Amino acid sequence: MTKTFANESEHQAFVAAQAVMPQGFRAGTTRFEFVPAEVTKPAKMNLTLLVADEPTTNFAAVFTRNAVAGAPVLIGRQRLAQERVGAIIINNKISNVGTATGVADAEAVCHAVGQALNIPAQAVMPASTGVIGWRLPSEAIVQALPGAVSSLSAGSLASAAQAIMTTDLYPKARTATVGGGRITAIAKGAGMIEPNMATMLAFVLTDLDVPRAALRPMLAEVVDRTFNAISIDSDTSTSDMVVALSSGKVPCPDLAAFEQALHDVCARLAEDVVRNGEGVHHVIRVTVKGVPEAAWAKAIGKAIVNSPLVKTAVCGNDPNVGRVLAAVGKTIGAAGWPLDPRQARVAMGGHAVFANGAFCLTPAIDDLVRAHLEDTELYTSKGNAEGMFYAPVKYPPHDRCVEIEVSWPGHATDVVIVGADLSHEYVTENADYRS
């Protein structure tokens, strides 16, 4: 069922309702000004603390496969060997990647958090997002930390979802209940998104008692089918991270039900990330059916949503459907798979545009596909006096998607990939990102 929002207030109320805190956790945020070591212009940074009432043995995480990984990712991988995790400290503005003191800076922050919360520094997991290559202002963070600690409270993750943003237009949170327990997750991400494991940053909290041995493979499997199945711009971040913590306050008698709820939360959150991508006018949902191997189906879906020509056509509401089939054929041909594109059926908005080995295009079909593109558009570009384009809204007016289906007969494979178009705003945002 399509969800629509008439204004920003309606969307904020929806996020607040989705951001209900599970039992056994608190969150706090603070904001401070600093001057990055690499530039002279003052900047502002948000700090966010997610804290378990008691450090938990039941935690899981997956991290980017980008070989240039940030210091928080390097530390996070080590934290997986720890017995317990009690807190996550998150900063925006600087991703802490590739600096000489990155690991030491992050560990200094974890040490300060541990002292403030009376837990070991090794029980604190760091996360950072923002500019790559700038040094983390660890001393300024430590000085600002008491503000985040003093604001810790239970009840809602809404402020945390807001504070972890960078170029995001709006916060993202999703929740689900399982029996008497709850799963709630928040995420940030708008650009540098084709997660090769996760999204830029996502944090999942649950009060359901799911043991570590079950939670870790479960999170990895769910991430592969949700966050790993999205792309905004085909760039895998150096800082991608999904962390899950269980406070264990509520018994979980049905692990299968928990996994399904975890999947639903992550799938909805992953689509929210795409919808809030930098300059995104359309969300593109590609369903690939009938391919013998799921990995092939995933690659075909990614090829469509990552094609600059498909993305720009969709942005312009232009039903140039030949670009879709070209992207499919490019991928199959390069891989050498025994899969004949001429046997595929391609539809957009439910309207067949290629079938039985040939395009089936008419003026009427062209009009129907164009109407579908116009109906799924989130907003139209606005320009300022300097000729720069920007998004005129700070909330998603609806959750409709451009629906593309590519199917072959004979197999049961059904893979869904979610992507985005490519607009003036994306170029503007990333041309001026540091300024």
Radius of gyration, in angstroms, nearest whole number: 22 Å
Structural class: alpha+beta
Helix content: 25-40%
Indicate the proportion of strand residues: 25-35%
Name the average pLDDT: 94
Categorize the overall geometry.
globular
Count all strands and give the number: 18
Q: For the report, how would you describe the main beta sheet? A: 7 strands, mixed
End-to-end distance = 40 Å
Topology:
Blueprint: H1 8-18, E1 25-34, E2 43-56, E3 59-63, H2 71-79, E4 85-91, H3 102-117, E5 124-128, H4 138-150, H5 158-163, E6 172-178, E7 181-188, E8 201-208, H6 212-225, E9 230-231, E10 241-250, H7 255-275, E11 283-289, H8 294-306, H9 308-315, H10 322-335, E12 345-348, E13 351-355, E14 358-359, H11 363-376, E15 382-383, E16 389-390, E17 402-407, E18 414-420, H12 424-431
Parallel strand pairs: 4-5, 8-10, 9-18, 11-17
Antiparallel strand pairs: 1-2, 2-4, 3-10, 6-7, 7-8, 11-18, 12-13, 12-17, 13-14, 15-16
Helix pairs in contact: 2-3, 3-4, 6-7, 8-10
